[in-house]
Amino acid sequence: MMRSLGERWATDNTFKPVFVDREEDVSLVTRKLYELHKNRKQLKGQSSSLNYRLTVPFAPHMFGSGKTTFCVNYLELIRRFSETSIASFASNSSKKEFLDKLKTSNLLYVDLRDLEQTDPEERSLEWAIYYLMVKNACSRIGVPVMRKRQAFETVEMEPSNLVALLRDKLNIPTNQYLLVVFDEIGALDESYGEFDFERTQDGEVFPYNDFFGIVRRLCKQDNVFFIVVGKSEGLRIKNSVTVEPRVLLHFISLSPLSSSNIVEFLEKSHLEEQFHYRVCDILCSSSFSVDELAEALLECTGGVPGLVTRAVNMLLNYVQTRGQSFRSKDECLSCMNEDGFQRICAEPFIQHISTSDEDKKTEFGILLMMALFHIPFKLYDELNSECYLFDAVNEMGLYRYPIDQDTFQVLIPKVFVGNFEHLSSLSLLEQILLGSLKLEPVDCFFSSKCRVFEGIVAIRLILMLSSKVRNEFRELLCQLSAVFKEMKLPIREPSPLDYMRSVGVSESRSESNKKRKTYGSNEWNKNIQEALYFDRVYIPVDTNSRSPDIIFKLQSPVDSKVLIVGVACKGRWNSERIGWSDIIEEAEKFLVPVSNQVLSNAPDKNHCMLIVVGTKLSFNVASELGDQSRCYSSGMSIESESFTIPSNCELVILCERDVEMLIDKEILNGLERAFSSTDRPLFGDFGPDLLRRARHSFLSWQ
C-alpha cells in the first residue's frame, strides 16, 4: 500500500537483512570456549593445577551493536569461517576435534527478560534460571512446558540434573556440545527485590556475582558452554564481577561495520517477500552506486549494525513511496541529514542523557572531546574513582570502536549527534564539539591519529574569534598585525555547524565524479575560493606536507579585504626544539603558494597570515624574538634562512609565554607528558584531570 510523503520516514520492516562480517569476534569466542574445554578438569578440581579462571565470552554493548544476532548466528558463522579465518585455530588434532564438534553443537537461547520467580523456591535466582532454561528447551521442541512445581520435583537443585534434563528434552547425546546463550543480562538490574542474593558484610548485593556463580557451577558439567550478552546499567567492569578470582569475562568487540561490510550487506539482503529484488537494486541507480550508498550509510550511522539496518529500512520505505531510486550520494545524504530521519532512526537506540548536573555534563564533555580528538582508551582506564571509561561510554549511550582487543575509541554516530544537539543546558563548548562531530568526515574518525593539540588550539581560536568580551589573545594579534586589527571581530555568534570541519586530504571515491574539496593539493586558489568559508575554522584530516594544521579566513567590515589565516601547531614534547628551519618549512608550504596563486590576483584585497604556535622554541629563535611574540611582514627577511616574507603575507611567531596564555601552562605540561614517548597517546597518558582542566579552561573563555 502506498504511503503519503508525510510518512516517508516509516520504519516498516521491508527487507530481510543478512549477517556479515564478525570474523574476529567468531575467532575470539571460539578460542575462549576452547579454553573452557581444555581446562574443565581444573574447574572441577580434578587437576593438580588450579590456576584456571572460568572464561566467559561477554558482550556488554549498547543497543544495535548486533549482540543477539551474533549469538543466534554463531554456529552458522563458525561453519562459514572454518575454512578461512578460523582455519588457523585448528592447528593441532585437539583443536580440530573441538572445532568439528562445536560446528554440530545444539544452541539453546535464553532471554533473561523472561526470568520470574518460581514456586516453591520463589526467591532463588538459581532455580529461576534453571526453570527458564527448561522452559525454553520445551518451547524449542514444541512440547508442553513443565509446570514450575513439576519441574521443581523433577530436577533437584543440582547442575548435573539440569543438564541431563536439557539433553533429554533436546534429544542430544552426552558427547554433543550444548551451547547456551544468555541474552538481555540487563534484566538483572530490575531484579533486586525479587530474589535472595548473597550479601556482603556491609549488606550490599551484587546480582551479577550470583549469576556468574551459577554459570560457573554449570560449566563444571562436561560439554556445556556459555555466551553472555546484553546491555546492563548495573554490570560495570569496575564492580567485583571482573575482579573476583573465579570468573574472567572476555569482551566480544562487535566492531562497527566497514564500508566493504555494508556493501556486502546491501548486495546480499533482499526484500522480505520478493527474494529476487536486492536492497541495492531498489536504492541505487545508474548514477548512484552501491559503494556510494555504503559510504553514505557509514557516514550517517558509524557502521553500527542496528542503525544501518534501521536506516536501510527507512530509505526503502521512502524510495518505494516515491517510486524512484536515489540519483546521487548527495541526495541520499541529504535525506539522512534531515532532523526527522535522524530522530526516528536513533529513537530505539539513543539514551536520554541528563546534562542537568555538573558531573554528567563534565563526563559528556570529556567523551565528546575524546571522540573529536581521537583519543583512544584502554579497557581499564578510570574516568573517576567509581567508574571506568568503558562503563561511562555505555551509560552515556555511546559506542566504542575497538582498535585492538583492549583499546577503543569513542564512537558517536551522526544520527545520535543530531539528537544530542537538542539537549537542554548544553554549554557553548558542547555545542561546538557536537557540531564539529556532525561535520567531520567518517574516514577521519577511522584513520586519523590523536589530534588533541591541534583540537585545543582550534577551539581556543573559535572562542577567541567569537568572544564579545575582552580577550588578551585577540588583542595580542591586533597589536602584532595591523591587517588582523582591520578584520571584523568578533565574528558572528558561533554556530557549531560552522566550526572545526575536518577536510579530507584525498578525494573520496565516487562514480558520479563529485570530488571532495580538499587541502590535500596545492591548488590554493581553488581551495580558498571554493572550500574555505568565512567564519569557519578547519582542521585537515591528517597532518601533511601541503597545508597548515588549522586554517580559516576573515573579512574586513568596511571593504572586501580578506585575511587568510593558517596556524602551524608545532608540538615539541622532548629535547628537540623548534628551529628556524621548521618555521620556514611551514611558511614555504603555505605562504609562498598562497601568495603566488591567490594574493597576486587581488593584491589590494587579499592578505595571508601564518601563525606558528610552538611549544618549545630553539634558543636562537627565542633570542631573536627577544622572548616576545613577533610579526614578520611582507618584504622582511629571516637572514639565517635566506627567506623573505612574500607580498601581502605575514608570519606571526608566538613566544612560549603567549602560547601558555593561549593554551594554559598546566595543559601544556600534561600534553608534554602524554606525547613524550608516543605520537598516539592514550587516555591514560593524558588522565581525566587534564581533560577536565581543558574543558574548564574552554568554558572560562566563553
UniProtKB/TrEMBL annotation:
It comes from the Eukaryota. InterPro entries: P-loop_NTPase (IPR027417). This is Archaeal ATPase. It comes from Galdieria partita.
